[in-house]
Amino acid sequence: MGVDRIAARLPAIGGPDPQPQLLHGDAQQNNFVTTATAAVVIDAAPYFGHPEIDLALLDFFQPVPRDVLDAYREIAPIDPGFPERKQLWRLPSYLAIITVDGRQPGGLAAITKLADAISAYG
User: Fold this and answer.
1) pLDDT digits over 64-85, tens only?
2) pTM, 2 dp
3) Active-site residue 67, yes or no?
4) Which of 23, 60, 86, 94 fits a disulfide with 110 by CB distance 3.0 to 4.6 angstroms?
5) What is the chain written as a DSSP string?
6) Is the C-alpha dihedral spanning 120, 60, 68, 15 positive or negative?
7) Does residue 13 contact residue 88 with C-beta atoms inside 8 Å?
8) Which of 26, 79, 101, 116 is catalytic?
9) Residues 68, 31: Cα–Cα separation, whole Å
10) Confidence of residue 97 (pLDDT cuts 50, 70, 90)
């Protein structure tokens, strides 16, 4: 399967070797609540992994304002090759959506995105 080929090649296509970071586990904007005094992260499934994974999921469901990425860059640089790897880091999410939604519209859309990513990275 294409995903297996990509997994085997991950060290070569995953960009610079990262220092593993504590990741949110489901970093997309529906898991952030902002109040007048603070921002709170909810629905966290933390684990250590490649920091680009959370970055790739921030706008998974809808675009985020540019200032979000600008603020991210103030804390940590974003590798120039990240845009080319963004879909790579979304592969597990596509597989999860396909597992849950199957032949529903969301699952079918994820199958198309998964196929496109496999073609690009496989």
Assistant:
1) 888 988 998 998 889 999 999 9
2) 0.80
3) no
4) 94
5) -HHHHHHHHHHHHS-SPPPPEEE-SS-SGGGEEE-SS-EEE-S---EEE-HHHHHHHTTSSS---HHHHHHHHHHS---TTHHHHHHHHHHHHHHHHHHHHTTSHHHHHHHHHHHHHHHHH-
6) negative
7) yes
8) 26
9) 14
10) very high
